[in-house]
Every structure is written in structure tokens, then in C-alpha cells.
Specification:
- The complex is a heterodimer of chains A (257) and B (745).
- Chain A has ten helices and seven strands.
- Chain A is α/β, with parallel strands linked by helices and 257 residues long.
- Chain A has a domain of 177 residues: Response regulator (Rossmann fold), CATH 3.40.50.2300.
- Chain A has a five-stranded mixed sheet, sandwiched between helices. Chain A has a two-stranded antiparallel ribbon with strand order 3-4.
- Chain B folds into five domains: 250 residues, Leucine-rich Repeat Variant, CATH 1.25.10.10; 85 residues; 101 residues, no CATH class; 134 residues, no CATH class; 85 residues, no CATH class.
- Chain B is mainly alpha-helical and 745 residues long.
- In chain B, helix 33 runs antiparallel to helix 36.
- Classes of the chains: A alpha/beta (257), B mainly alpha (745).
Chain lengths: 257, 745
């Protein structure tokens, strides 16, 4: 009974929401920046628009947004503050300033993507994300384990890789962690978002080829070893991508959840 | 139930329909973990060895996900894990299995291994499960070498989990994900598991894992994957730590940089270098006291330098070839490195060097030959100040470390040379070996025969390069006439008193900054301790109390002879002695927080008492301070005392001498009904524990009985017990209590 109910309930959104998903395999992504506001959220939005399952995080200790002066940033706690509440607070504080510097615009976008900024270090990998149905890019992320993590700054990459070493890889799941250096402003974030989708498309293509070709050659043992797998092709794909995006320096490693 | 609904329509439904149902089932378990056991078991018949490829892929991935889920605790996973072993074995042993199925199955096996091991530890009768797990293990270890990369990656991780489970743990790991399953849990007499054999297997597997590093492979996915799963071993399995660190420190992630730099090799080199560096930084951060910390630090520094060279060079070439590509690479870092690269500190060649040569940083021969001593001193000073003010901190750091490197390399080279020139004194069997090993670390052509100390000594004795005379000459020309300090102003006694008071108050300065001595950790030094040997708060207080009591002892006879009665009360007397000034401040210091500083008060009074005894013995008529100070202290805190202040009892018990006057002060407490009990129990304590003062304490109790109605019941109780007969005499003469009191006292 449970299964029957579940299948009825869940088959509908699959058919409505993701016509493409039925046709093809999709890698699952995770975008990371310092505050889970600008760069990672731009990436989150663009990847979800391209129908990739995606989640996003920040590695900072707190969510920091520019304030009236450099020394007075607006600071919020991760996981406890919603984009909407930040939006309303800043709008009440100084609507002109925060509209002019683009913060309200950004927060307005973010609150349509998910509830609030989440901290990487507090995230329990593999916890089912079934309660996040309204988040953009949630479809396909129910298992809570991405295949690729894309950070937007070198020190976020460092933090992520270090944190994964810390966790001790209990899930035994390999994950490609890729950094793309994107400057923290709206324009560069937008450019970076496009670059992230380009990279995602390239990676997904390689992953799909692996699944299709190996599938066809599944039963002759020699066939599989003769061509490169997805995991091997990631650096190659990244190198090609780098040629297309020479202004966004990248770093990659293969780590474990 | 779940199994039935998915299994029955199996034949009728297409693979796509089945997948849809399976996905629905997966959603159910993700939403409610309590279904895991049933659904996983129900799914097993559909995804087995003979199912369609899509179903096997889905199944293997589902198993990998389910066995790893953090939602279930270890105990909850056992049942499910044991149930899937047979299916898992079928998938892994299938000849020519699909890569994705294999990869996911091996991943699932990695998660299953610690759980299965734990289960077998407690359920040794169930040999069948262990047989499945062992078969899976040997099959995985067998396909490891020849497998395609994705499967190989999973095999590495599987091996890591086996090593983790079969080595001795230090108990430092998290309690989830089975990371805490270790050799410690296996009893030595287990019928299926032999700990020694398992440990030996783990050692072998670790070696096999590290093989990829030992071969200095540039297969980035494999190397990265290996490095990124080693940290937990180092942290929690001490027996593996040295082996791993030695291997990593001998690994050269930049080997690939020697081949032509294609965009792909660039990605690979960068990845290998950063992964290695982050791994070591992580180890260093987690365990700064690691015995290998020094080597790790050096390795990291060397790596950063080589990386800078490689990528900097590449960056320059690119800059020439293509302006747009110039910004490629780590823009922020390049800038800094570019700035630093301007200061290149060449290592010194062999042979003895002058001190000037050691400190010469320029390559410009003309500049190097310039004799700075010819400059007038004031000009040199001006230039130095200007230069230091304008100097970039990083450049200065670089220069300083460059000089330091030169000195250490000279030192090291001299040590090698010394070892080489004295072969007779060294064990012939070991010496050449040591030198050979060190060859990598030393510049072979650096062989000056002296060490730095010798060079410096020689330089000191030799006619100085920078002659001293010119300096002296310059000094002479600039010399001013003889300088005399103006005579000090005449000292007014009031000012002097103020100043000495200020001096005394400075004695108390360190108290605020010194840490409270940690009472728990402090070892008892016993009778042999020195009163103020450690520079902590306690010893400073000892110092202060002795300054107060003994510094001027015996010197104040005269003044005391004149007006002894003033000494305690005249606070603002201009000519207070040093001792009294410090006493005054000590008194204030104690009263500031007397509940916590009662110990200091006791220590102080002990010192006063001791000093009084010395004075008495010497027969001088110097004033005695103990009684005065004790009364004053008691007066001081009695006015703040509350019923809870048991410190009073302690204070009275610990100070060296009690007098009638002192105990008489306690009577005042009985005016307040809340403190009656405190006063009387303090006295009772004295009666019981300090026999020498029992009488005066009892007299005080009797006084209290007589004077304070409220205190009578309690006082009477004590008196009945300790002064039998007293109460009778009182009750007989109730009409004249005053007389009786007089008799009693």
C-alpha cells in the first residue's frame, strides 16, 4: 500500500516537472561559496534552470552581507535565517541603499530558490532532502548526495576538501570537488553562473557517454576497459572548459563523502 | 508488502515501469527510514545477478546508498546488511559485469564491511554471512588491479575500510558510519576471526593502497582518491600513521610538471600538488605535535616554492605568447609571488665567507663592494630609518629567512665536513650510510671546513672588515661636550611619602595580570618547596606578605618607641613605614574580595605571627603586629558577613593565635539572629578542634549566652555538653545573671 501510494504521489511530478529527466541521466551538483548568497546561489539557479539536481552551501562562519560601510557588515546565522527575513530586514533598514547595491535584488532572487543560506560544515551528507520539495533543483537530490561539488573561491575549496578529510568519508562515495575562482560581485557571479552551467553540461555529457557506451558493451568484458571512464575524463573535461574560460582559474580533486 | 507490490508485476511490466516503481519505493524509504529493512529486502529479488542491466545498476546504486545512509544507526543497519550480502556477492562475482554496477556494488561492500564484521563479532555462529563477506572481499581484492578506474576507486575505498576495521584504534573517531569499528572489538579467542591474521591483512592492504604513491604515479584520480581517504587512518589508527606519512613525504606530486604543459597536465599537476599539500596541512593542523611535524612543514614549504616556480614560469611564457592568457592561473597569488620574486637570495657557495658576504643580498657587484662604513654615521642612520620605514614587510621577512637559510646551510655543511674529516671517531659501519642518506638534503658542493660559530669567532678576531676606527672618528667629530644631568629637585617628605606609596602599590600590579594558580593541577611540593619559586600568583602573594612583615622588621624600633599606639590607625600619616604601607594595601586587597582571599589573609597573619615571635625572641621592643592585624581583619569582614560565610570558621581555625579580644568580636554577630548559628558553630569548632583555646572559646559562648537572648538555646546546648555544671549554676542563680557571667569568665 505504502509503495502504491508513494508511486502515485511521486510519479506525477516527475512527468510534469522534468520531461527531460526521463530521457537522460543527470549528474547531481552542489555549489559552494562563502555566504551562500551570491555566487553559489547564481550557480544554483542556473543549474536548476538547466534541469540539474542541485543544492548549495556556504563555508563561512556566518552569512556576511555588505552594510552601509565596510566596517558595518550585515551578519546573519546560517541555517536559521531565511532569505525572506533578511530581505525584509534590509528593506526596512535602508531600501535605497540596498536596492542600489543590488542586495535586495539578489535576496529577492534567492528567496524564490530556497528557504535560507545553509552552512557546508553543518550539512550531514546523505541525509534525505525530501522536505525540500519547493527548492529549485530539488528534484533528483532526494538522496542528499551530489556527484560534483563546485566551489566559487579557492579558500572555499580548501575548506570543503579539509572538511571532507575531517569527516573521515563514512559514506564511501567518491565526489569530484572543483573550484572556479569567481569574483564576489553580481556581474562576475552572473558570468560565473554561465561558466558553471557550461562545465556541468560538459561533465554530464561525459557521464552520459559512460553510461550509454558501457551499457551497450556491458556483457563483453574487454570493451569496458578500452575507453576512459567518467572519473578519468573529469580533468580532461575541465582542461577543455578552462580553454573556453581562461579568466576563471580552476582546481580539481577527487575526494570522498 | 512493499516487495510484493513491486515484485508481482515484474513480468508484466517493462523495465521502465519497474524503474518507476523502484524509484517510488526509494522515495518511501527516504521519507521514512523505518521502511529500509523491508524495502531493501523486497528489492533484492528484482535487482539480482540475472536482472536487466538498468535494474542491476539501479539496484547496486540503491544498495550503496542504503548501506551508507546516515539516517540509520549501526545496530539498525546490521539486519539489512547481512540480508544483502548474498545478492551483493552475486553482483560482484558476475563475470564481465557492467562498470557502473561493479562500482556501486564495491561501494556498497565498503559500507557493508564494518557492519558485517561487527555482526560476526557478536554472532560467530552465523558462518554463512562471514563466508559471503570474505568472498566479496577476496573478489574485490582480486579485480582491484585490472579494473577500470571507477571500479578501482571504489576498491581503494573498500581497502581503506578494511584497514580501518582491522587495525587498532585510538578511540578518537566519530561514532557514525562505522568508522569506530576496529580491531579493538575483536576478542582474541573468536572462532571465526583471528585478530593477528586480520591485522596482518590490513598491513598488507595499506601497503597496496600506498603503492600508487610509492610508484609516484601521476594518475591523478587514483592518487587524489588515495590521499583523500588516508587522513582518518592517520588520526585514528596510530599504527598506520608513520607508514602513511613517510610514503606521502616521499611522493612528488610535481613529477608530471617535467613533461610538456598541456592544459590537461596543468589541471593534473595542480590537482596533485594541492591535494597533497592540503592533506599534509590537514594532518599538521589536527596534530601539531606530530613527531614528523618538522618534516611535513619543510615538505609543504618546498612544495609551495616549486609550485610557484612551475606555474610562474608557465605564466610568463603565456604572457609573452598571449596577453589574454596572462591572467590565467591564480591571479591573486601570482601578484604576491611576482612581488616577492624580485628579491632572490642566492645561496652562498662553498668555502669560508666573510660576515659581510653572508649578509649581502644584492647581486650587483658594484653595490656589493661598497664600503658602507665610509658613510657618516648620521647619514647611515637616516638612510636605514628611511629604508626600514618604506620596506615591505614580506620582503624583509624573505630577506631575514634567506639569511637564516644561509647560516643554517653553512652550519649543516660544516657539520658534514666535520664528520668527513674525523672518520676515525665515527663508527665505520654506520658513518658512510648516514652521509649517503643525507646526500639528498645537502648541497654536495657546500663543504666549508668551519661551522658558523668558528667563522664568526674568526671574524671577531680578524682585522675587521668594517673598521671600527672610522666609526670612532665619526663619533669623535660629532661628540658633544660632557653632559650633566640637572640636579634632582629637593625631596619634600610629603612627595617622598606619596612616591613610596606609589612604589608599594606597584608591588600589587602583577596580581591583576598573574593567573590564578590552578589548584587542581598544582603538585604538592612538600616541605622542600621554596615559598616563591614559581612566578605565579601564589608566590607573588607570599612575596608581598613577607615584604609587609619582614622587610623593615627591626628597623622601626625608634618610631615605634615614640608613638606605638598610632601605628595601626593613622592611615594618612605621612611617614608610614614601607611595611605598614604594604600592610594597608594588603588589607584593602583582601577586603576587596575577602571570601575568596581568606587564604591570603591566613597566610599574611601566619607571617605576622612568625615575625612577632622572632621579635619577641630577639628581645627588642619593636612593635608587634599580629594581634592588631588580626583584629582589624576580623572587624573588616565581620561587617559584611552573612549566615552562609563558613569561611569565618575556617579563618578562625587556621590563624595561628586566637585571643579573647579576637573571639569577643564574634559576640557582635549574635546581635543579628541570622548569624547566631555561624558565630556559635565557629566557636564550637574551636572548642572541638583547638584544645589550647577551648577555654577562651567556651568563655565567649558563655558571654553570648548571658548577653543575647536569641542565642541562648543554641549556646546552652553547647555549654551543657562542654562545660557541665555551668547551666546548673546559671539556673540556680537566674536572678543575677551578671554575677554568674562574671564568675564564669
Amino acid at each position: 500500500m505504502d509503495t502504491a501510494n508513494g508511486s502515485e504521489g511521486s510519479s506525477a511530478p516527475v512527468q510534469n516537472g522534468e520531461p527531460e529527466d526521463a530521457s537522460g541521466f543527470k549528474l547531481k551538483f552542489c555549489t559552494v561559496c562563502a555566504s551562500n548568497q551570491n555566487r553559489s546561489m547564481e550557480g544554483h539557479l542556473r543549474l536548476s534552470q538547466a534541469n540539474y539536481p542541485v543544492i548549495s552551501f556556504g563555508t563561512g562562519s556566518l552569512v556576511r552581507l555588505p552594510g552601509p560601510t565596510v566596517t558595518q557588515p550585515n551578519v546573519y546565522k546560517f541555517n536559521e535565517t531565511s532569505y525572506d527575513s533578511i530581505y525584509r530586514e534590509l528593506e526596512a533598514k535602508d531600501p535605497r541603499l540596498y536596492r542600489a547595491n543590488g542586495l535586495l535584488n539578489m535576496l529577492g532572487r534567492n528567496r524564490l530558490i530556497k528557504w535560507g543560506p545553509e552552512r557546508w560544515q553543518d550539512w550531514q551528507v546523505g541525509m534525505p532532502r525530501v522536505k525540500h520539495e519547493k527548492d529549485k533543483g530539488s528534484a533528483g537530490m532526494e538522496g542528499g548526495v551530489p556527484d560534483i561539488v563546485i566551489t566559487c573561491e579557492e579558500r572555499c575549496w580548501d575548506a570543503v576538501v579539509d572538511d571532507l578529510l575531517n569527516r573521515g568519508s563514512p559514506l564511501n562515495r567518491p565526489v569530484h570537488v572543483i573550484n572556479i575562482d569567481i569574483k564576489d560581485n553580481h556581474q562576475d557571479a552572473s558570468i560565473g553562473g554561465g561558466a558553471i552551467v557550461d562545465l556541468a553540461d560538459s561533465l554530464n555529457k561525459a557521464a552520459m557517454e559512460e553510461r550509454e557506451k558501457v551499457g551497450a558493451a556491458a556483457f563483453d568484458a574487454g570493451g569496458a576497459a578500452s575507453r576512459a571512464s567518467f572519473d578519468e575524463r573529469v580533468p580532461e573535461v575541465l582542461a577543455e572548459w578552462q580553454q573556453r574560460w581562461p579568466d576563471l582559474p580552476s582546481t580539481w580533486t577527487l575526494s570522498w563523502f | 508488502m512493499a516487495a510484493d507490490s513491486s515484485a508481482t508485476p515484474e513480468k508484466a511490466l517493462s523495465v521502465a515501469q519497474q524503474l518507476q516503481q523502484l524509484n517510488a519505493a526509494r522515495k518511501v524509504v527516504l521519507e521514512n527510514a523505518s521502511y529500509y529493512d523491508r524495502i531493501v529486502k523486497g528489492v533484492l529479488p528484482i535487482i539480482g545477478r540475472n536482472a536487466a542491466l538498468e535494474l542491476r545498476r539501479w539496484g547496486a546504486e540503491f544498495l550503496a546508498e542504503s548501506l551508507a545512509t546516515p539516517v540509520l544507526r549501526m545496530g539498525e543497519k546490521e539486519n539489512m546488511t547481512v540480508a544483502v550480502l548474498e545478492t551483493l556477492r552475486g553482483l560482484i562475482e558476475g563475470a564481465g559485469e557492467d562498470i557502473i554496477v561493479l562500482k556501486a556494488s564495491v561501494t556498497a561492500a565498503a559500507s557493508a564491511y564494518p557492519v558485517a564484521l561487527r555482526w560476526i563479532i557478536h554472532n560467530s555462529y552465523h558462518t554463512e554471512s562471514w563466508e559471503h563477506m570474505s568472498a566479496i572481499k577476496s573478489r574485490i581484492l582480486q579485480i582491484w588491479d585490472g579494473a577500470p578506474v571507477p571500479v578501482k576507486l571504489s576498491c581503494i575505498k573498500f581497502a581503506q575500510r578494511v584497514v580501518l576495521a582491522q587495525t587498532v584504534s585510538n578511540g578518537m573517531e566519530q561514532k557514525y558510519g562505522g568508522l569506530d569499528i576496529s580491531l579493538n572489538m575483536i576478542p582474541p579467542n573468536h572462532p571465526l576471526l583471528d585478530p593477528r591474521q586480520l591485522e596482518a591483512e590490513a598491513t598488507g592492504l595499506l601497503d597496496r593502497m600506498l603503492g600508487v604513491l610509492q610508484d609516484n604515479s601521476s594518475d591523478a584520480p587514483l592518487v587524489d582518491a588515495t590521499l583523500n581517504c588516508l587522513s582518518i587512518l592517520i588520526r585514528t589508527r596510530p599504527n598506520t600513521s608513520n607508514r602513511i606519512l613517510n610514503t606521502v613525504l616521499n611522493f612528488n606530486p610535481l613529477k608530471l610538471a617535467n613533461s610538456p604543459m598541456t592544459p590537461k597536465t596543468r589541471v593534473l599537476v595542480k590537482s596533485l600538488e594541492k591535494t597533497t599539500r592540503l592533506f599534509l596541512t590537514h594532518v599538521l593542523k589536527r596534530d601539531p605535535n606530530n613527531p614528523m611535524a618538522g618534516r611535513i612543514q619543510q615538505y609543504i614549504e618546498r612544495l609551495v616554492r616549486s609550485r610557484a616556480e612551475i606555474f610562474d614560469e608557465a605564466g610568463r611564457k603565456r604572457a609573452l605568447a598571449d596577453q589574454a592568457a596572462a591572467s590565467y592561473g591564480d591571479a591573486k597569488r601570482q601578484k604576491v609571488e611576482g612581488g616577492l620574486a624580485q628579491v632572490v637570495i642566492p645561496p652562498l657557495g662553498p668555502g669560508p665567507h666573510t660576515l659581510a658576504a653572508v649578509f649581502t643580498l644584492t647581486n650587483n657587484l658594484g653595490l656589493a663592494g661598497f664600503d658602507a662604513t665610509q658613510l657618516p654615521v648620521n647619514l647611515a642612520a637616516k638612510i636605514s630609518v628611511r629604508a626600514l620605514a618604506a620596506l615591505d614587510q614580506q620582503v624583509l621577512d624573505l630577506a631575514v629567512s634567506g639569511i637564516r637559510d644561509r647560516l643554517t646551510s653553512l652550519h649543516a655543511a660544516a657539520a658534514v665536513a666535520a664528520a668527513a674529516t674525523q672518520p676515525a671517531e665515527i663508527n665505520a659501519a654506520t658513518a658512510p650510510l648516514g652521509v649517503d642518506e643525507d646526500d639528498d638534503d645537502y648541497e654536495p658542493d657546500l663543504t666549508p671546513a668551519e661551522d658558523t660559530e668558528q667563522i664568526l669567532n674568526k671574524l671577531d678576531n680578524a682585522p675587521p672588515e668594517e673598521p671600527i676606527e672610522p666609526t670612532a672618528d665619526a663619533g669623535a667629530t660629532l661628540a658633544l661636550g660632557p653632559f650633566k644631568l640637572p640636579p634632582p629637585p629637593v625631596l619634600d617628605p610629603n612627595v617622598a611619602a606619596k612616591l613610596s606609596q606609589a612604589a608599594a602599590s606597584r608591588v600589587f600590579g602583577p596580581l591583576s595580570s598573574l593567573k590564578e594558580g590552578a589548584p587542581l593541577r598544582k603538585p604538592k611540593a612538600g616541605i622542600n618547596r621554596l615559598a616563591a619559586s614559581s612566578y605565579d600568583r601564589d608566590s607573588w602573594l607570599t612575596l608581598i606578605t613577607r615584604l609587609a612583615t619582614r622587610s623593615t622588621a627591626g628597623l622601626e624600633d625608634v618610631s615605634s618607641g615614640i608613638k606605638p599606639e598610632d601605628a595601626g590607625t593613622a592611615l594618612d600619616r605621612p611617614r608610614m613605614s614601607l611595611g605598614d604601607t604594604i600592610r594597608e594595601m594588603l588589607y584593602n586587597y583582601i577586603l576587596e574580595d575577602w571570601r575568596r582571599r581568606i587564604e591570603i589573609a591566613v597566610a599574611w597573619l601566619c607571617e605576622e605571627w612568625y615575625n612577632d615571635q622572632l621579635i619577641k625572641r630577639s628581645g627588642s621592643d619593636a612593635p608587634l603586629h599580629y594581634e592588631k592585624c588580626a583584629l582589624r581583619l576580623v572587624d573588616g569582614f565581620l561587617s559584611y558577613i552573612t549566615a552562609q560565610d563558613k569561611v569565618l570558621t575556617r579563618f578562625l581555625a587556621e590563624i595561628p593565635e586566637l585571643s579573647r579580644a579576637l573571639l569577643g568580636k564574634l559576640k557582635g554577630l549574635c546581635a543579628d539572629p541570622t548569624t547566631v548559628q555561624l558565630a556559635l558553630t565557629s566557636l564550637l569548632y574551636l572548642v572541638m578542634m583547638r584544645p589550647p583555646v577551648r577555654d577562651i572559646a567556651l568563655d565567649t559562648v558563655a558571654d553570648i549566652w548571658a548577653e543575647y537572648e536569641d542565642a541562648r538555646p543554641l549556646a546552652a546546648k553547647y555549654l551543657v555538653k562542654w562545660r557541665p555544671g555551668f547551666m546548673e549554676s546559671q539556673t540556680r542563680g537566674t536572678s543575677a545573671p551578671a554575677n554568674n557571667v562574671a564568675i564564669a569568665t
